Amino acid sequence: MCVRDASGMPLSSQGAHAELRTASVGKVLLLLSVAGLLCDGSLSADEMLRREPVDAVADSGLWWQLSVDALPLADVAQLVGAVSDNLATNVLLRRVGVDYVARVGSSLGLERTALHDKVRDVRGPGDPATLSTGTAEELSSLMLRLETTTAMGPEPDSLVRQWLSSNVDLSMVGSAFVARLGLDPLAHLDGPIRFFNKTGTDAGVRADVGTVTVGDRTLAWAAIANWAPEDDGRLVSEAMAGMRRIGDEIVDRLTA
Fold first, then answer.
1. What is the pLDDT of residues 212-248, one digit of tens each?
2. Which residues are CB-neighbours of 55 under 8 A, at least 6 positions away?
3. Which helix (H) or strand (E) holds 175?
4. 160 within 8 A of 28, measured Cβ to Cβ
5. Closest Cα partner for 212 from 196, 189, 190?
6. Which candidate, 171, 160, 178, places its Cα nearest to that of 80?
7. Could you tell me what percentage of the chain is helix, strand and coil, using 3-state DSSP and rounding each to the nearest 5?
8. Tens of pLDDT along 54-111?
């Protein structure tokens, strides 16, 4: 876990350099890659992307339940930001390539944070062991850079913030902002509280990264919990309570 102020100074940190599984949090790197290609003209927001059998995956998202087979690229990216759409993730990743996303991560100076693969219902022995990994130190810094437009640059960073600002998962750190700051969990693109985040959920993984601004105070965070998947029944509620405590800490700092 790592919480930073607007200067980048860590205010609270525990195990921040540990490389952990981050589930869907790695999709932020895909969105950064797509945003950069859109802003330099290499991709078009109106390009129609078609879902193919090779992209098929169940669970998180909406597109796999919709009847439409093709969507504009910008809408596909929005699905990833809003509902962590797994099918949309795979379609985007097929378009830009996992190797390109890796190069973008390297260009951002990320050494222990990466998106390793597409989303799979089942991971075989020849597949990467997990979707993404990262450290709280690197991810909290990346979130702050997104807020201050010093990651990919003003235009692409603004696009990624827009996509992530519509995220509907406020079950972890963000739950404190809903309960104590009155943040609308379904409509927080505009208003007195500026907020964006990306969460990750998998067996043995809960992760939440983002920034929140109230008035002239901004805090960035990365909170990651890992445990043995077979211990889900025992540890999920404990991990979620820990995420809420981090959110409460952030609210305390913002309102002190």
1. 999 999 999 999 999 999 999 999 999 999 999 999 9
2. 87, 90, 91, 94, 118
3. helix 175-181
4. yes
5. 196
6. 160
7. 45, 20, 35
8. 999 987 899 999 999 999 999 999 999 999 999 999 999 999 999 999 999 999 999 9
pTM here? 0.97
> Which one, of 161, 89, 77, lies nearest residue 119 by Cα?
89
Q: Does residue 85 contact residue 63 with C-beta atoms inside 8 Å?
A: yes
> Between vectors from CA 189 to CA 138 and to CA 236, what angle results, nearest 5°?
55
pLDDT digits 0-9 by tens, 173-203? 999 999 999 999 888 877 889 999 999 999 9
Q: In what order do the strands lie in the sheet with 132-134?
A: 20-21, 132-134, 114-115
3-state secondary structure of 81: helix
The residues facing 211 across adjacent strands are 196, 220
Contact 217, 179 (CB under 8 A): no
- Residue 195 and residue 211 in contact, taking contact as beta carbons nearer than 8 Å: yes
Max Cα separation, the chain?
52
Q: What domains appear along the chain, each with residue ranges and CATH number?
A: 2-255 (3.40.710.10)
Among positive and negative, which fits the CA dihedral 100, 80, 172, 141?
Answer: positive
